Hints:
The protein is an alpha/beta fold. It has 2 domains: 223 residues, 3-Layer(aba) Sandwich (D-Maltodextrin-Binding Protein, domain 2); 195 residues, Periplasmic binding protein-like II (D-Maltodextrin-Binding Protein, domain 2), CATH 3.40.190. The chain is 37% helix and 14% strand. It is built from 16 helices and 12 strands. The chain has a 5-stranded mixed β-sheet. Strands 6-7-10-5-11 form a 5-stranded mixed β-sheet. β8 and β9 form a beta hairpin. α15 runs antiparallel to α16.
Amino acid sequence: MKNRKAKLILPIAALILAAGLSACSSGGEGAGDNTKGAAPAPAEEKLEPVELTVYGGRYVSEEQFMETYGKHLQKKYPHMSFKVYGNMTAANIVTTGMPIDIFFSDPVAYPRDLAQFGLAYDMSALIGEFKFDVSRLHPGPIQVMKDTFNMGVTGLPLSMRNVVLHYNKDLFNKFGVTPPRDGMTWDEVYELARKMTRQENGVKYRGIDFSAHIIDYNQLSLGTVDPKMERASVNTDPWGDLVRNFARFYQITGNEVGTEEAKDVMDWKRFGEQGITAMNGTTFYPPSAVKGLFDMDYAQLPSFPSKPGVGSQSPSTYIGLTSSTKHHKEAFRAIEYLLSAEFQTMLSRSGTMSALQDPAVNAVFGADIPELQGKNAKAALPTKPADPAPLSKHSNSVQANLWTPLLQVFTGAVDPNTGLRNMEESINKKLDELKATMK
């Protein structure tokens, strides 16, 4: 499953980066005023030339950084230049003694890539000095970093992701079925999936498929590892509700997975490349992803009865300073501008998802993408995101131990109760192995 997840996640990451990674914002009041957010340098302050080093990890190459961020930063601050470490691990950089001024990361990769090497840095003092208004950002991603590392603000959200229900409008028109709409429940979408799962003229059509993000960014805010006890937290009633909800879709006759026709459980290809699946729940893909194969549109992710109107968690790509920087103010000045309403409006127009709680920025989402005109693009934006799930430093390390037994449930090899017990046992076994290596 690990390989299958990688195949899915990498195209999504590439699409996000092609659109400009994603969005967030910064200081000042007046959230809708694009002239605010990045405080200009005081007139009396002389800005000396500075080269800032950027660690992009697997998220951004030098070319991508300069195209999406660097050239705009240099237009704003001509005294800045950038050296980007892309496609390198933090271990490589630390071993060679190369400094890092600015990092890009997510909350799972952060402890592996940076915190374990003592590179985490609390930006609280700089936030106060620059009068950076953190309240303009969605609070969830910031709280994740605080809870995980217990050392202040070690990263600010630069972009957000959101799980959306994509649908093939042509198939719904073909079969005369009303397509999904915003505000539906999973029970209603289940009935839609049953209607759309059929065989016609020798073609087997599927009602729905999902990506791994439907579980990873689940609407019930469920984590895999209790960060206090460092034990599996999956064999619970809420996890049972989550697993049973999605397993039932794969038990619809004709919509099964793990079969010769649908070997992979979490698969975009059946929807986006073959055009035989009516709906797909995954993080946002722009219309170009289906290459003109069919007319694709969007609906908000359906909700659970226990969480009416609540969408997926909206994980972020983070940006921040590291403890190895010698250019604290200049690095933060760059971050401040990338999180400004001015810059984020530009990114939002190009189809990125802002971490700003700014209606004016979000209102222009996708405005510069002709393919999105006339689409329900607002469904791609988090309106009522689920609270972030508890995150352990080992959460990323046990992903395969979650998914291997979970897929057995989706394929019908085991019942949900057995699957939950298997998940718990597999995760705890991995945690014991990790603890043994740390002794």
